Amino acid sequence: MSDHIPMRVAVVGATGFQGGAVARLLAERNHRVRTLTRKSESERPELGGAAFVLGDLANADDVRHLFERATHASVVMPLVYDTETVRTYARNIADAARESGVRRVVYNSNTRVPEASTNVAAFETRRLAETVLREGLRGSGVELVVLRPPVYLDNLFSPWNGPALARDGVLAYPLPADTRTAWVSHRDLAEAVYAALTADGVAGRTLDIGGSQSLTGDELATAFARGLGRDVHYVPLPPHVFEEGLAQAIGPRAAAGVAGIYHYMASGAGPELMAGDDGSAAEALCVRPAPVDEWVARQPWQIWADDATSVS
């Protein structure tokens, strides 16, 4: 679809970081965006003029209202890892998409998903959502594209990582130092979602996005050092320590769900799960994730430093 023909996009999850990046990019490109929220007006993020629909994913009528007159949809699930809750969310989305007749749904699974089943809720609820969407849309004429991202660079520009990086050159993250990972930014994710909404030849596909660049912990630290202009060293953070810190921000249940990914990776299972692909997804979507050092150099790290001279 041409950028000159505006889409009307129902963005599920736009009040979160990933969905918010998608909503802002769509608005920048003059597409109309609506999202569902339970937040009050004072709590809602600025999404470039997106319209908010008050409601809940668990309520089928609310989701139908979100999808009214939509031509496309972008979906990322909230940080909920209860099986039946996620099944309800996905079923309501599939029903609303089918009934409204949107042309294409792009589902961001929020993580890579192992081929074989696991006992990790963060993987299995996202696999379940994909299955429910596929089954719910089958035969409807609504196209589905699934994107499976690796790990987000924006996780490192945060109150948990930013100060240690800016002040001390310490990059602590709950992945083993030798785990090769294709890091992407929220902006690169949004570009991939936008491409998946509009590109020809991707309907029905599941794409591991992230490009072909895979970095170990030490290689990631080297890229950060280039971007920051200072020495940086990588410290593999124990997943339980990560989980405890995250629980203070998002609550213990959501933190346990997110941390399940890192416990899985620390166990040695699926060592290549988060690695870059052969570049086929980037080719199919005609996107090119920014190199890590370039992304790092663009971030205002001085906000985490004691003063502006501590980061050059």
From TrEMBL:
Pfam families: NmrA. The keyword NADP applies. InterPro entries: NAD(P)-bd_dom_sf (IPR036291), NmrA-like (IPR008030), NmrA-like_oxidored (IPR051164). Residues 8-246 form the NmrA-like domain. Keywords: NADP. The keyword NADP applies. It comes from the Bacteria. Belongs to the NmrA-type oxidoreductase family. This is SDR family oxidoreductase. It comes from Streptomyces flavidovirens.
